[in-house]
Amino acid sequence: MTETLLDDATQGRVVAAYLKSHPHFLSDYPELAAQLTLPREKGSVASLAMYQLQSLRDKNAELERRLADLIAIAADNEKLMERVHALTVALLRANTVEVTARSVVARLSADFHTDQVQLLLFGNQPELPRAPWLQLVPGGGAELPEFADFLQQHEPVSGRLSPQKLQRLFGDDADHVHSAAVMQLDHTGMLAIGSRDPDRFQPGMGTLFLKMIAATVTAALARARDVA
């Protein structure tokens, strides 16, 4: 009740006295500094004006940093899209399962700058040659107990895999793989990409492009079998 009876001048003096006794008030409530109107003449308020200016500069710098990050992400995504497109075109030219498999590994190794690529194909594949990048799994997923949960989820995984999974995928080269991405090719098999860089593939990374690659390879292998 008493507060409502105070005139504007008295309230102003109360506020001024409070601010004087709490010089760091604006540091705790920085949004208020940007809303204050300052007199144009020079005086002791110049420091507050500088504070407002610095606050706006900091906000602009943060917005510019975020914009630069978005631009960089967009540029990276554009490059990935171009590589996925090149992979798709190469697979469209393949007319046999062997050529399709070789094209997959060659493109992923060259265009995506990967250190290791492993293609695991389920079932009997007598027409395919022996190759260090190819694993034939006649019994299908049942022969891969390490990946039982993965094969049921139908989602790509990326990050640092367990030693058992790395050994099953990359064999003697497992010690050189510190992060990997693994994709399921429906009931056809699995595709694994390994990197020496532990941060190349991370659990939190988006899986959109991995899904696109998996769908493209799956369709290309099915098409090659139909043509044969």
TrEMBL record:
The keyword Transmembrane does not apply. Pfam families: DUF484. This is DUF484 family protein. Residues 46-80 form a coiled coil. InterPro entries: DUF484, GAF-like_dom_sf. Keywords: Coiled coil.
